[in-house]
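Lesson 9: reading folded outputs for more than one chain in a single document. The general rule is that every protein is listed as its sequence immediately followed by its structure tokens, and records are never interleaved. Here is the first one.
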Amino acid sequence: MTAPIFVDHPIAQDALTVLRDARTTGTDFRAALARIALLLAAAASVRLPLAPMPLATPLEAMHAPRLTGPLPCLVPVLRAGLGLLDGFLALMPGAPVAHFGAYRDHVTLETVEYSFAAPTDLAARAAIVLDPMLATGNTASAACTRLRTAGARAISVACVLAAPEGLARLAAAHPDVAVFAVAVDRGLDERGYIRPGLGDAGDRLFGTG
């Protein structure tokens, strides 16, 4: 199992506790997830390339660093991944957005894909899969496979919580994919839910279920 890159910022840890609390309202759940998304975005973008560019300040000319090359494509897994998207776009407003639609069969726990849309220049940029929960790892693996087929040159996964089983599954299928996570919980129950976890992120985010 590849070790995740932990986002252990105190604000992220505090927001995760809010997400875990069964008493947290939908409004507060969305706000806490948005705070975490900003910190995940900062961690996942820390190696974006920079190059010095000529610049005139109000006082004199200088060279200052600017981002170079295409920004990564953001790939929220529908629907819970949408809760992370705005935080990433806040830091990278020019990033294109793809969508990977999938659901987990509650009997087999396998991923069933129903939608995929991506920019035509995906081969020219990296991709970041956004999904609050990396549980069985099946959906994240399927998303990475689909992105590779579409030409993505480098892929990472940004999540809030991961389970050891999901990390192992993703590493077996895509050993070069980096995972950014706030925490890794103890494991999965018989339904494939992360324990202690935070429940169904999509249901709590959108008030369904």
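And here is the second record, again sequence then tokens.
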Amino acid sequence: METSSSRVWFVTGASRGLGRAFTEAALAAGDRVAGAARDISPLDELGARHPGQLLALRLDVTDRAAVFDAVEKVTAHFGRLDIVVNNAGSLFTGMVEEFSEAAARAQFDLNFFGALWVSQAVLPQLRAEGSGHIVQISSIGALGGFPSTGLYSASKFALEGMSEALAAEAAGFGVKVTIVQPGGYWTDLYTSSTATSPNPVYDPLRADLEKQWAEGSIDSEPRLAAEALLKLVASDDPPLRLLLGSMVYDVAFDITRRRMDTWSAWEQVSRAAEKAVPAPS
């Protein structure tokens, strides 16, 4: 049910996985949602259940002009924009050596450039309103590079670097930015992933990875991520980063501690590489 005080969301990748869970949670909270996806047919029954609350938009976020047009449609339809969730993404697995140029660019086009185009398109509206919250759905893959997901991690590293700068640039206009780093959830990210043509020299490593994933994978219901997102956007002081899940929380601290130990061990070399000198003539 729609209320005059309901918030307006723009969610990309809204038809499935985490995006679907975010959309359902926002609608259930009485908010209005513009749900964007390449295939919007799965949103039909949601629209029927929440008449007047859902605007389904067929959108390929890698098309910059289409993204800007979509944002105009959202603001024309709902009159405002409050929460933007850059969720659209894909996983292209393979060892770094195996990636073709086309595959590498495709991974970045969706995971990085898609979020960049959306962020650019919504900022004028949010800036004019003097408020708003952009939520960038990143990944555990942005905590470090892992075998067979190197290009996926690279795209998420790029997303986070851009988003940190965006947060600092937008803060003065009252616009908040949060990077969300989820762990494993039962979505089709893995089942719909694309893989490179395998180089047999990596077969032993692939076997080890498959064993690790079979023994150590922890996946949760997307509903839990959606509940966390609702708490995030309700906060008056949201964090720049939010970890979702105990596994990713522990991995984040472990990786950070190991980095700090390495930096400390090499401190003398690091400090010796800097010495102020006059500017060259």
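What the second record shows: The chain has a mean pLDDT of 93.
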